[in-house]
Amino acid sequence: MDSDRQVLSSEKVHLFFTAIRMAKQKNKKSEKTERSSGGGADFSLTALKEKLISYACRYDFLLLGIILYLAYNFCTGFGWISGDVFPASILPIALLKNHNVYFDFVASSISNPDISYAFPFVNGHYVSFFPIVTPVLVTPVYAASYILSALAGVTSPNNMYIIAKCAASFLAALAGVLIYLTGKEIFTRRIALLTTFIFAFATSTWSISSQALWQQGTVELLLIALIYLAVKNERQSSAAYIFLMGILSALFVFNRPPESILLIPVLVYIVWYQREKIPWYLAGGVLAGLPFLYYNYSIFGNAFGGYAENLALFTVNTGFIGHYLGLLFSPNVGLFVYCPVLLLSIAGMYFVWKGRVSPIRTLVLAAVPAILLDILLYSFFGPWSSSAEFCYGLRFLTGLVPVLCLFTGFFLDEWFGHGKARHQSQKKPAVIALVAALVIVSVGIQFVGTFFYGWSSTSNKSMTDERAWNATDSVIIRSYTEGSPRIAGIFWFTLPPVPPLVYFPITGG
């Protein structure tokens, strides 16, 4: 019996320790499983993060476009609007609702003497004095707004102004995206981003093109689109790119005939490097140009529409020298006064000229004489200073901004991008300080124009040649001192044209 009890006790002890070992093994497996599952979670989070970064890099242009569009839609309301942009703001409504190009349905509104000049009465109808390319191009934006408004069941007073503002923001943002995509093909990504920032917020793109449906905003968009297509064609040659360039060139001509000079570099590129595809270019031009040519002849009886009467304002005389300098450097009109950062483009031209010959560099270099000729053309325009009569700064030369920004990008790339190894010297900090100062000052000037100009009394004054050179009566300074106390706050509009989604009140406004 005793021996049996001892055997039984030893078996119990053995079973006890076996149970402990099994429990320990189970705990280890459980811990291992938990660690494994936890590691899987870490791996999933890491993979998700990497995927998001990958998508952000792949669709960086889309993200940039959204940011620019949202940023451009911040404004101080609609305290003032020029009669020059009224036809472009209303015509999409006529196209969508009445299916014609007449403004008879708003006859009472356009009888106002301040804007009636923009709506001549021709063959029994009120029509637009200005070319209609811009309003035709933004009509889909208006259509999208109406559809979204219907789906959301919302209406808003003054919705025409909001839609027009958002359409202008859309065109400016799209131009910014194309500047970035073009810059990425030529410069480093960092330089492309900096160049895009300068284009978007340190030039008249912000204070003019994104604020209303000026023709110059479309000039900017079409010009950088043409350059981008040329760059893409050099990466992978295609007749489709040349065909699209023909379409855009025709739109460019009929949108603002005087700016046709800026097509010189495009024509140089086509004739010099794409001679065998000239038929494709011409086909695109004819396809896009015929409808607008027909419109001009059927309404006005000439190829240039209402603009034909402006030809009499171009006169050749010795005064053009002062006008030329004034367009660039006068205190209240000068391009480099409102956008001083673009002075860097002059140095950029030098770097392009001394660089290796390539089709794109040839195209960009060919833009230099086109720029000089464009400025010369407006120096022959009698009321040259009227460029700043209805807007903040030099509107006539805003179409040059994309090319000047690209030249600025070449300067930045030479010092801080591909060519930075050649400039590792004590001078580099000075260049950094110079660039930073020019960017900050330019952004500040454009900020004043974007948010304060419309509310200052100076916006309603005519710009004479004398005032253009009068540094003591600065439009920039008066816009801030007179405009800032009058605004109630900063609004953020978007489509559909609902009441502002964001409103920042300003004390004392």
TrEMBL record:
The keyword Membrane applies. Keywords: Membrane, Transmembrane, Transmembrane helix. It comes from the Archaea. The chain crosses the membrane at residues 61-81, 126-148, 160-179, 214-231, 238-258, 278-295, 307-329, 335-353, 360-381, 393-412, 432-455. This is Uncharacterized protein.
